[in-house]
Write a structure and sequence with these properties.
two-stranded parallel ribbon; 2 strands; elongated
Length: 212
């Protein structure tokens, strides 16, 4: 019962946070945190702490948010949850940037970027790259802020892409729905290859383009 209550409180906090009621959200997150601690659920504790960090940073209480993020990182690492670690580390880097700590921000964001790329989380990767660019611009490193002039992406981590995917909003990124293999004449070429392989199979000849 306590576990279900802790999860429900955390979810209710998310609803309050997304509907502009931060005080109620904070109360729910804190209550969920208390329940998770009593249960000894490190992962649940990390989630509640991370939500509190995001909430306070979003309210402009940056130092408080940074402290919650730091504690969330410790719990996610203890739980071995690298996905949660990457997300919170990216948010922690943004908070450090807003606190006027560019060195810490760059270190945290670079680490978050490495994690997201290892995990294949393109959404978190895009957010982290955006935050890194903001730090570089603030510190006058304009070349690093725009290291890639543009990109064309055809294969995506999640398909079809979510309409709110950050890549779709980037002016220097072209996204296509996994169709780059199609071109003028490709159907004819593929048809010829299929017919040829059917003939080879019937005649007992070696097939072309076999995949081991």
């Amino acid at each position: 019962m306590l576990a279900a209550e802790a999860t429900a409180l955390n979810n209710l906090g998310l609803v309050y946070a997304n509907t502009g009621r931060p005080r109620q959200a904070a109360d729910c997150y804190l209550a969920s945190l208390s329940s998770q601690q009593r249960l000894g659920r490190v992962g649940g504790e990390a989630a509640a702490l991370g939500n509190l960090g995001s909430l306070h940073a979003g309210m402009g209480q940056l130092a408080v948010g940074a402290d919650f993020n730091r504690r969330a990182l410790e719990r996610y690492r203890e739980a071995g949850n690298r996905v949660g670690e990457a997300v919170v580390l990216s948010e922690h880097g943004q908070t450090s940037h807003l606190l006027g700590r560019p060195g810490e921000a760059l270190e945290q964001l670079q680490h978050a970027l490495e994690l997201t790329r290892e995990l294949g989380d393109r959404v978190c990767e895009a957010e982290t790259l955006h935050r890194l660019a903001a730090v570089h611009r603030t510190t006058g490193r304009y070349a690093e802020a725009r290291r890639i002039a543009g990109a064309a992406l055809d294969v995506h981590f999640k398909e079809p892409l979510d309409p709110n995917d950050p890549f779709l909003a980037m002016p220097n990124v072209l996204c296509t729905p996994h169709i780059a293999g199609s071109s003028h004449g490709v159907t004819h070429v593929q048809s010829v290859q299929v017919v040829d392989n059917i003939r080879r199979y019937i005649e007992g000849a070696p097939l072309q383009n076999q995949v081991a």
